[in-house]
């Protein structure tokens, strides 16, 4: 770049991509200085080498910006792991199967492993049956990248998201309207008590008349 270019002549391209032509390197440097730009060698193996006029600092900044944007938009795929045992009950297997689907929905790969202990090592068929059952449940949502295989005390398989599979959207639970169900309240927030009916009062004259009749 600039004075580091040692060839006697170069083929020069301007900042807009237009070909200027072949000229001595000092003349190309003069043009770069006149336009307040850098002379950058872009094809050093050509004869003569091809150089372009550009703002090299701005070019590097824009390149770094593009790389950062690409990294932000790039999804990092990780390998998650779900572990079970030959005696894992059916309910826990269902819970872990749903967890596998959650990982797959996020785009991750999942290693599903069955860990054997002691005498369980004599029955690897139990672990194989367990993994085959999970693979059957995951049909349509996952593909088997690696079939179940034994590694020491672990039997494991690796699954990844099936092409075209989309996880089911969670349904929102309706919240009851508190305004319709709440009791009536006064302005200060206190609940308005229900009035209790009072007994009817009998006039004294009628009481006296009824008493005389009884006599």
Could you characterize the architecture of this molecule?
The chain is an alpha/beta fold. The chain folds into two domains: 2-70, Translation initiation factor 3 (IF-3), N-terminal domain (Ubiquitin-like (UB roll), Roll), CATH 3.10.20.80; 79-161, Translation Initiation Factor IF3. The chain contains six helices and eight strands. It has helices spanning 25-34, 56-73, 90-105, 124-137, 178-181, 204-214, and strands at 9-13, 19-24, 38-43, 50-54, 79-84, 109-115, 142-151, 154-161. Strands 2-1-4-3 form a four-stranded mixed beta sheet. A four-stranded mixed beta sheet has the order 5-6-8-7, with helices on one face. Strand 1 (9-13) and strand 2 form a beta hairpin.
Share of helix among residues? 25-40%
Instruction: Please provide the count of β strands.
Output: 8
- What's the CATH C level of the largest domain? Alpha Beta
Radius of gyration over alpha carbons?
Answer: 42 Å
Low-confidence spans: pLDDT under 50, at least 5 residues? 204-215
Strand content: 15-25%
Based on the model shown, name its key terms.
215 residues, alpha/beta, Ubiquitin-like (UB roll), Translation Initiation Factor IF3, 2 domains, four-stranded mixed β-sheet, 6 helices, 8 strands, disordered C terminus
